[in-house]
């Protein structure tokens, strides 16, 4: 239920507040991990816009970002959010900010 609510919420908010910071909706671990995996470069110091990050997450769910394609829908966001949660968990466990003490 929470994933369904969040996917609809992100779809709506990213359309109305496209230029807002993505950190209004995504945690730092979420957007940085997705950025690094999808773009294959280090995340920028300044967070991307909400619409830019929403499109990147939706691409993980099958959204094709073309010039004449509309904004992402709830299904591609739902599938993208599932992949994002896995990436964020790995980022927190093994990423740059993770505790260096492994047993």
TrEMBL record:
Q: Taking every annotated instance into account, which residue ranges of this chain make up the domain Transposase Tn5 dimerisation?
A: 2-87
The protein depicted here goes by the name Transposase Tn5 dimerisation domain-containing protein
Name the coiled-coil region(s): none
Where does this protein come from, organism-wise?
Allorhodopirellula heiligendammensis
* InterPro entries, per database record: RNaseH-like_sf, Transposase_Tn5, Transposase_Tn5-like_C
> What Pfam family does this protein match (any one)?
Dimer_Tnp_Tn5
């Amino acid at each position: 239920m929470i994933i369904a609510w969040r996917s609809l919420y992100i779809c709506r908010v990213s359309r109305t507040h496209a230029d807002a910071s993505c950190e209004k909706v995504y945690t730092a671990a979420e957007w940085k991990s997705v950025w690094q995996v999808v773009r294959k470069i280090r995340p920028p110091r300044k967070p991307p816009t909400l619409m830019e990050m929403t499109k990147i997450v939706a691409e993980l769910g099958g959204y094709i970002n073309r010039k004449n394609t509309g904004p992402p829908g709830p299904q591609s966001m739902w599938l993208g959010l599932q992949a994002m949660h896995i990436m964020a968990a790995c980022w927190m466990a093994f990423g740059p900010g993770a505790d260096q003490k492994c047993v």
